[in-house]
Amino acid sequence: MNIWKFELKKAFQSPVVSILIVLFLFLNFWLIYNHAGIREELKVTNQLVERFGYKIDAEMAAKLQAYYQSKLQKMNELTRKKFGKTYERAGDFFSEYEYRSEVLSEEELHVITETAIVEGYYELIQEIDQTYSHLDLSKNAKLDINKYGLSGKTAEIAREYYKNLNNRLDELIEAGEHKNLFFIGYVYRMHSFLFKDLMRQMIFEVMILVVLITGHVTTYEFQNQTHLTAYASKRGRKLMLDKLVANLFASLCICAVILGATLLVYFLVFDYSGLWGIPISSFFNSEFPFPYISWWKLPFGIYLSCVLVVFIICQLFFTVITYSIAVWIKNNYLVYAAFALLFGLCVLITGIVPKTSTAIFWTRYTPFSLILNPHLWFIGWNVFTPKNYEWTTAVIWTCLLAIVTAVTFLKFNKEQID
Amino acid sequence: MRIILYELKKIFQLKMVCLLFIISFIFYQLFINFYFEHFLNGRPALDLYRINMEMIEQYGYKMNQEEFEHFKKVYEKEKAAADAYLQARQEYVEAGLDTYEKFRTADTEKQEIRELVDQIIFVDEVDLFWELLARETLIKYYENRNSLFSIVEDHPLTAEQKERIKDTITSGNIMSAEAFENYNNLIRYVAILIVISIMFMISPIFLQDRRNHVVFLQYSNKTGRKIFNLKLQTALIAAGFITTIQLGLFFILYRGNKVGMFLNANINSVFTHEVFWFELTFLQYILLTIVSVYLLAFALTIIVAVLSNRAPNYISMVGFQVPLAILLFAVVIDYLVVRITKIGLPIYFLPSAYVLLILIGSFIYFWSVKREKKVDLLH
């Protein structure tokens, strides 16, 4: 226990770690701040959910329509008084060449904006059925095959993949999973913002810290020429085991600090109250003509937790990878370079394998490829995001790294240290 | 001199050089190769490039109103050829697409019409039609050249900016937007690669000696603390060497992009939609970016070397370079290497930025040399 404490002290005593944490948190907050302009508009969604629930059915649609009509009427009263003009759609007010927002007080403008948003929901609800009935996944298969130049066996896999996705889509439509309110993805792109921009940024930040710390702690004795004493003591070479535990714990701490602080601020800025139970495959969450289709029914809260679990698992992988490299190399500067090279190679190899070989799929089962698209985790998006991709990667690499660590220990135990 | 040679040998250890080579290779594969392989691979990029080339052949590097009329006439002639192409095909005449004009404005909402249009454009990739599209784009650029006045978005134009934009509009310079954009993308990544290379190679320069306790021997022998200055100079020589090799390699590969025709073209052009403060040809612009990459590399080297002398261990050394790298990649390179002297920034921005950079560099250099003379090594 005591040894772990001292090893952890080595991890956090460098001022550079705290400086980087502060800097990274600042960058995250800055990103959130730049996106915070829409937070007032997002609140309309929470109000609607509070009023009508998020499940869209005929009854709810009728209620929403009535609500929308009353809103529109109120808005028209206002515009008639102000400009002597009424609008059929609230959107028309904003699409007018020079809409006269200067003349309006903030409150009045708010009424019109709110009406326009409710109108957006009302109109999009009418489009849901049409959008989903027009989805033709065999077309997507063709597109993917063309785009990535697949042929033969790989093309067959692509077709098979979309057949599976199609089954899932039918199931989803059957269960009405897509008919739920959420922030309008086309407009606000909250899914991309949270899971792509913010999450990916955090993944790289935590990765940098984790690799720096692990390389430092693991090679500490060799770098400070205390290895002859430390590894000759009673604890002896088992000290390396303590270092591994300390590294894993330090990585968890870093994850907790960065994720905790950033997500806390995120959810304070953007109000998700009432929305935690809405499935991620909701039509309103989609940002492109092709919607997000999660492989299982995942409500937002659970989806976020799953993403966080994969996030942390990946960081632990990076810790163990760095650790194993460090035990072999013993110079942490070269360890950092080696890790960067490994990262580059793993990403590079997916791009240069021949398009006709199935290697194009299985070379992607690495944590390095996995972390590049956190917004597509658990979602069927293209051929490279199959069902169970995340879990399979996690299991494969757990086994792989367990073997690597075992070999590393065996080697280190017998090694000549001088 | 002998010390510098020995120090150079220490920087360019075989192990480090091999690693640098692999890093560069991976970086090229991941980021740079794309702009070599996909330059002019798409359409209408290829057609625009070809027509730009043809324009320079026919009209020289400038185009006047008369030549523009001629250019339009060629367009009309090709349009007639396209009409003939369409009329020769039964299915197009039947669908009412018997002239190019109708073909262009066809209602692609309709399934069968969209299929016919896609057949020519995307399936058969008929050169004539792509070329017509490209010519249309260029004619539009020339005719709407007054829209250049709106390229500075965030604030109203100053009198000088207006003057420069007016000059560009009246000049009729011909330049390929594809070639220019391609070079800008490439030089950005090459600059990033050079920054990474320098950071990687120079970082251990002092730290290594201090960790091995060689520094005590160095400072107590005859050369003494002068060695600090000599090592800084070594770092600068090494950085110059790395930058030269990287740039040399890059330009050897860049020759494959075939932009020779545009080297003497003026980059202030309505066709690239770019205006710069100076009348630069493409070649001059390339030389200017090279000079700025060198200046940036030297300033960076001094910062990295001094950091290497102060950092207690490698985690701090690398850790402190993370914010530096973020700053360089996200901001500095975009302002000091790519699209330099662009009209959006004040005319004195670039010179003053570089004067400031050189001042900061030399200040750190002399300050650290002076400080090192008296520093207490033991505490």
TrEMBL record, chain A:
It comes from Thermolongibacillus altinsuensis. It comes from the Bacteria. This is ABC-2 family transporter. Keywords: Membrane, Transmembrane, Transmembrane helix. The chain crosses the membrane at residues 12-33, 244-269, 302-327, 333-353, 391-410.
TrEMBL record, chain B:
The keyword Membrane applies. The keyword Chloroplast does not apply. Keywords: Membrane, Transmembrane, Transmembrane helix. The chain crosses the membrane at residues 12-36, 186-207, 228-254, 282-307, 314-337, 343-367. It comes from the Bacteria. This is ABC-2 family transporter. It comes from Thermolongibacillus altinsuensis.
